[in-house]
Each structure stands twice: as structure tokens, then as C-alpha cells.
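Record 1 of the preview.
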Amino acid sequence: MTLKNRVVMMSMGSDFAGHDGKLSDEHIKYYELRARGGTGLLYVRDVSLTERMPDAIWY
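->
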């Protein structure tokens, strides 16, 4: 793999997913802005919260 630079952005939490845990338009815009801003590599992640996590904290 060849990158345009050595700038790497690790995955991090965001509050952009819906309560169903699915990818939202806000997610796409978030990563698109970072890619256009010059980040050479973006690590992304997915999260799906379910009812099996009764102690989850909702902000």
C-alpha cells in the first residue's frame, strides 16, 4: 500500500450512529472531511449496541 503521507487517524468514538448502531450520513461526512483534509490513512470501526448491553450509558 502506498500512502500520500504518514498522517494516520486511529478509530475513535463518535455519537453519530443511530440507536440501531447503523452508519449515518454524519459518519460519512466526518471521515470524508478528514480524508479531504490530508489524512493519509483512516482506521474506521463499526459499533452496534444491542439490548444485551443494559448498562450502556446513553449521552
